[in-house]
Amino acid sequence: MTTSDAERPGSGPGPYRIRYAALSDVGRHRKENQDSGYASEHLIAIADGVGGAAYGDVASATAIHLLRRLDQAPQGEMLPALAGVVHRIHDKLAEMVEQDRELEGTSTTVTAALFDGRQFGFVHVGDSRAYLLRQGQVRQITKDHTFVQTLVDEGRITEADSRVHPQRNVILRAVDATGDTEPDLFVLEAEVGDRVLVCSDGMSGVLDDNDVLPLLGADSVDAAAVALVQASLDAGTTDNVSVVVAEVVGVDDVDDEETSAAVTVGPMLVGAASSQPRRGGVLSRALFRQRPTTATDEADDMGDTGEIPPVEATSDDGAGAVDPEELRYAPRPPRRREGLRRAALVVLTVLVVAAALGGAYSWTQTQYYVAADGGQVAIYRGVQLDLPGLELSHPYETSDNVAVADLDELSRDKVADGIVADDLAHARRIVAELADQNERPSEDPSEGPNEAPTEGPNERPTEDPTEAPNGAGTGTARAAGPTLTGGTAG
């Protein structure tokens, strides 16, 4: 751990500066530290690698390495710059996984803040946290992206319940190589005396707000960082513990005792980012070769990343205990048989397509329509659709007594186009109707007059004009009277 009281230049963008301290400890139950931390006068950050066997230390170290590029007096908006670096972390992890499949499944949380002299600009993904101590009150200013947090939000469990819930380690969002995650972004106005804490879940998982308040309010940022880590270890955390503490002070506010006691001035790098990640073939050894010389170096040489000596883990659970880290966001083991997996996916895809085609063909064989088969009307089974190399219909029943040539023109056209039936019974009714139409005798209107009896003109009855009253109707029948034809008047 190191501390710094570096002043900002008087021409800087704001009236404040920050004192900062960073500390990371591997913990009493871990062999590797998958946390990484960074602190400077412009940037504080924590990244907690996720995935256990998937090299979470590589992911967290990569995240901090890329975040360090923002370590300068912010120019312009801070939040777009922070969002951009999260996307670059994703891109870098994707590139690394492409080069080494053993890294597949690795991911990391990111909680970081830029300071421009007036404001903190925050970016947050995962379950690392940020706290604010202001005027004697401490509050969490980030929201965990975890399964248990959703239960708390829904009122199904309490905050205290979430600390002992079986799925408390499962996070729903992290920066990985698969999906480009959208981070939470917000701005916090700074006040003199504010203390901002960013930490991994190794601390927040065992200490509540009441525990954090007196520890974060210690005499100095150094003392606060040490107290928070030590309290987490004493509380029984099973994870790595990493904290960064920053205190807002005036530009001219100088503590002589703190300044004279400072062991170094400059940025601080702790945790996995300060030592060689396990996948040296992917992350160059030169990546972290030029890290600042700090008081953590001696501890790093002992296999730890903090000032608190590691303690051998003791467990009553036996050798078969499951590492909770394996149950987090990316618990997938490294993929060692890529070719076999791809072949299995190809076979599965072929089977799915074959099943779909088989189901479609089976459906076509439940359909019927009426059309011509040679010169006769026939019932076809299937659908009228031509596919190369595949017949979807065939004659099912052919009528011997219904010839297409004997149908009227309208019916011939319908049969030529095909008459779709609801089912086989409906198709048979259609054929029967066509047969009935074919057997119905035709009516020639020219035959009517030849069949009617012919009568001579002398046989047509006439009316005696003398019988008409008052002598009316001479020479013709009365208009309203009936006319008799085709017979003899009697």
Question: Could you characterize what this model shows?
Answer:
The chain is α+β, with helices and mostly antiparallel strands and 490 residues long. The chain folds into two domains: 323 residues, 4-Layer Sandwich (Phosphatase 2c, domain 1); 72 residues, no CATH class. It has 13 helices and 18 strands. Strands 3, 4, 5, 6, 7, 10, 11 and 14 form an eight-stranded antiparallel beta sheet that branches. A six-stranded antiparallel beta sheet has the order 1-2-13-12-8-9. Strand 15 and strand 16 form a beta hairpin. The longest helix is centred in the last third of the chain and has 27 residues. The N and C termini lie far apart (142 Å). The N terminus and C terminus are likely disordered.
